[in-house]
């Protein structure tokens, strides 16, 4: 049996970096699980992410923002619930490493893609959806916390 103690330091460093960037440990675990599930070993092997949304233009905007946060070899594809009616697209979504959808639409996504592990995300409404021009910053995509949001509001 191999001693895994040597991994504690690098894993602790990764968790500390995630904490500095506001990423919860649960999201790090989800990413690690996705990497293991796809046999992720090479640094140049990207993660395939699918973001399922409601409105095409807004979903593409969120996907572009998410793409900008990831490594160049990672890919984010946007699709809508309506587009999931296409059988070829369903297979493509099922082959992704990570599937994300809006937290309030999680049950619908799971019903359309049974047996698939889908993670919820929380987003602020895109300017494309509002029909206005963005200020100096872009739309924001945030992982949904499995914890209650009320606990973070306590003083």
Q: What does this protein structure show overall?
A:
This protein is an alpha/beta fold and 155 residues long. It is built from six helices and five strands, in the order ααβαβαβαβαβ. The chain has helices at 5-20, 25-37, 56-69, 87-94, 106-112, 127-130; strands at 48-53, 75-80, 98-102, 118-123, 141-143. It has a five-stranded mixed sheet. The radius of gyration is 17 Å and the shape is globular. The termini are far apart. Mean pLDDT is 78; it is low at 146-155.
Strand content: 15-25%
Q: Strand sequence of the main sheet, in spatial order?
A: 2-1-3-4-5
Write the H/E string, N to C.
Answer: HHEHEHEHEHE
What sort of overall outline do the alpha carbons produce when their principal axes are compared? globular
Distance between the termini: 46 Å
Radius of gyration: 17 Å
Structural category: alpha/beta
Number of strands: 5
User: Tally the helices: what do you get?
Assistant: 6
Biggest sheet details: 5 strands, mixed
């Amino acid at each position: 049996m191999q001693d895994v103690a040597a991994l504690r330091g690098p894993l602790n460093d990764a968790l500390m970096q995630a904490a500095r960037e506001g990423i919860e440990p649960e999201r790090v675990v989800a990413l690690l699980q996705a990497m293991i599930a796809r046999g992720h070993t090479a640094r140049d092997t990207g993660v395939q992410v699918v973001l399922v949304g409601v409105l095409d233009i807004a979903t593409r905007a969120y996907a572009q923002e998410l793409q900008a946060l990831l490594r160049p070899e990672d890919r984010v594809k946007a699709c809508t619930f309506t587009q999931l009616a296409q059988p070829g697209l369903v297979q493509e979504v099922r082959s992704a490493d990570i599937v994300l959808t809006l937290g309030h639409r999680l049950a619908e996504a799971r019903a359309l893609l049974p047996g698939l592990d889908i993670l919820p995300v929380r987003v602020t409404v895109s300017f494309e959806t509002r029909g206005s021009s963005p200020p100096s910053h872009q739309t924001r995509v945030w992982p949904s916390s499995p914890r209650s949001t009320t606990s973070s509001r306590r003083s």
